[in-house]
Queue: 4 jobs
Job 1
Amino acid sequence: MFKPNSTVKEAREVLSNFLQETGCYDICAQCPIYPGGEGCCHGCQKINRNEEGQMTGCGSPNLSCLSYTCGVLNEHLRRQGRLEELTEALYGMPREGYRGCQLRQEDEILQFTDPLAEAEILASISSDLRVSEESDNE
């Protein structure tokens, strides 16, 4: 989904376009979970609206959009055969604050990491420390 050395701005655009083209914004506009529609975006000042006032997308996409964790959208994408595509694209991508409150610089090159590998390293270190503490106490 992302080109090598993608910038934050490019990633925001790619993800926003993906949500638009797969119909996710249409589902959010008529959210079946949160009454009144707009789902997780309800109350956000950055929502794009059409002439009728209906949500049509995000005016300020960010890398921590709550839609990526929405079960309804995940099922919608699974039925289209596109959920794995989004999951693989998002895995290890650095995030931004909720509703973009801590935005990264648009020209920043994204540095993807493997969070599970990092968690395994931390678990290994923690395990080594426990073993070390146990041998110190003997």
Job 2
Amino acid sequence: MPLRSPTPSPRFALATLFLCALATRADAQSLPASDSLPLRRGQWGVEGTLPYSAAGGGGVLRMLSSRTALALHVTGGVSGSDRGASDGTSVGVQPAIGVRRWRPIAPAFAGFVEAGGLFSFRRSTSEQQIAERREEESTRELGAGVYLQLGASYFVAPA
């Protein structure tokens, strides 16, 4: 018995035609133009991060075009503990450099992707009282890596 291809019903054909027309209409409604962002080549920008557990940071952005920026960030923190017989402190800093690219998604809103490299340095010291003597230990950590950040920006300045 030969196989035959199924013939679509008239309802299926109408539904397919309707969905194609709807997709074409949605595609015709394009995103805001890149000049809708309040960014211009040569501008500088500043951003900050909210501190959590004694860590915080900030950065500067240098606009390379109306949608692309060079990003320089620094985060850091200090923590300490005092538990009677033992205590310690830790200090760390993490500079990063990357390139951020925005895409307008609505008036005053833009999604972004940022990629770059980061470096880290942490120094920790601890002291511990054992019997009659006190011991001190110090460690240093260095690190390097890459990062990828996805997010969105809201621009308070008008375009």
Job 3
Amino acid sequence: MKEKSLKLLTILKYLPILFFSTAVDNDFYFLYKYGEYIILNKSFPHNDFLTVNNPPIVLQQWLFGILSYFLYEIFGKIGIIIAQDIFAVLIIFSLYKLLYLITNKEITANCLSFLFSLPFVFFCTFRPLLVDILLGILMIYVILLYKKKNNSKVIFLLPIFSLLESNLHSSFLIFFFLIPIAFLMDFKEKHFDFKLFVNLPLMALFSLINPYGLEAVLYLKNSSSKYSTYIAEMNRSNILNIGGQIALICIILLIFSNKTKEKKSFPLILIFLGTFCLTIFAVKCTPFLIISTLLLIAENIKNLDDVKILKKFFGVYEIYIPIICIIILIFGLKNFSGIIEKEDFSFKKAVDYLEEIAPNSTLYTTFYTGNYSEFKGFICYSDARMETHLKKKNGVENSFEDNIELAEGIINYKEFLKENSFNYYLFDKAENSIFAKDVLENLEYEIIYEDDNAIIIKLL
């Protein structure tokens, strides 16, 4: 019965993937345009080609953009969703291998991997964060493999990871440097780990191998805003949001699993503390906290009997594991079946209509409406790339903050329209913008398109 349960557990940890989002993430649309530009022009842009103000730009996600472009061109939307799920499988499998390396027990590693895949449902969409998570797991795995198995060859994969990160996303590059530094601070070791230390300058050197050099490495410089918390994933974690709730659960799980008197891994404690701080500052870092928590739990329970682990997780596991598998399959397949029909945005029909009658026009857009509009070929006012549209970073325009202040009535709509003019204006009704209200109540315009969700107008 234990062998049958192990086989089901091996499958069970992947089944929550069926509940992952079947809508294309908003960021995909500008990533696609990045890839399209690079492939068609055979060059890397240094000014933004998607918005009217053309601020200086660093495409730190250029390689992920090319991946997005080819996936969509060849397979369409379903290719994006399947690629998202393939990344998820790779992440869960890599985490399983890492947990197995710590515990040397398949059942324990499978149970903990399943524990990760459940909350991962809320964070897994096709975007570069998936690459960050996968590379972070692989980096810890390589260092632990080097430490535990005395495999000195694998340690020189670390510079390759920094090279990949600097070309696929770059946002978590600094965190990647902190991982080997945490292991260098392992005071239980009698000798200084020179081989691991040598990798730090190599990682720095390899991270500079990208089309934008040092600019991509320092991408996060001046990338914060007083309105950063208007973006859900950039909110600070608290007990009222998912980041804070998961952080609390992680602490509780660590307390309950900490029943052994063995010395804990100091590097893993440091990584946990680092990911905990990251999660407090930004909800999007929560998957890293979950992973670091599971690594410490694995250390705590690695000497427990496998059957005890199964009973702690599933009770009468011979009955409940098959039942859980069946329930997840039934409801998960129902969710996944909506992959083609599901509308991704409330304003999609409005933008699609405008594309038919006035392609390639200039269009007033916001943080939420800009990405898909750019994907359809419009030259937009703003989009979801906060860092690109901060004046302290680009030196030209400040449309991210200006849009928020327009929506809240801080900037007068007449002053804005004196300095900015567009062929058309797209207003998503759900945004409840004061700017939209002022324009629609006080100015003369022609309605180009309107439904329950959005309105497109042309000022007269």
Job 4
Amino acid sequence: MCLVVGVPNTQEQAKEFNMSKASIVAASKQAERDVAAALGGRRLHAGEWQGEGDVDAVGPDFIAQVKQRKDVAGWLQEGVKQVEEALQSKDELKRLQPDIDDYPNPLVVIVTKPGSGRPSRKFVLMSMETYQGIHDKCNHRYRD
């Protein structure tokens, strides 16, 4: 799960915005707090994670590594825009998939092309709102 926020992520970018390294670190920590709060979890403090890899936030049903960037790649933004616009075409969606939910989840799926002999990987990207809707729907089903 990633949340992209509009702050510089390198010292070079910070210079453009007149931000100190301390400001960048503070913004990064705040992004981690915001993600944790939005997902019903908590931000881990530096050094608190003792396992493999790295985790910035944790909750009862998620772990998250939060990446902050000033922006994301244009092709990725275009994919998000296209799938979100497609949600407005309810009649076309019903024509193509008659049993589709009234509010389907808009997903962007990224498939890697690693080359000969190596398997591709698939990544699902969705907005925080889409994830929260799926999460709430799943939790509601378990409670009933």
